[in-house]
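Example 3.2
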Amino acid sequence: MPRTRPTVTELARRLTTPPDTVDAVHDLLDRLWAVEPTITDEDRMRFETALIELASNVVQHGDRGSGVDWSVNVTCDPSVLSAQLVDSAPPISLDVDARLSMPSELAEDGRGLAFVRLLVDSATFANTAAGNEWRISKNRAT
């Protein structure tokens, strides 16, 4: 009897801000949830919140007056949800590992990346030839 391969779902979206907003990422994830109904509510919430936080940062900080092109790729396999977000904004200097803990209650910024790290199992950032690249992954509940 032939072995069946685990199902892998991949969805992608290319965006330009303006006019695109994080609503486009919500729409992409709504498509994923429709195709992958076995993803638990908790996994959905954690993954979606982390990805929307990253997308919000691109929309809010990436456009320096001439817009920003960006892409979002999401993948779901039986054990992991993952996403890659790449933007064309100028390269940023960021030490993701330095943002492991939440800033003080009085801090006005700096919570977003720490929050992302709390929500997913892996979060990385790199400056690549393609642009600023963010990757997150969340192990699925079994």
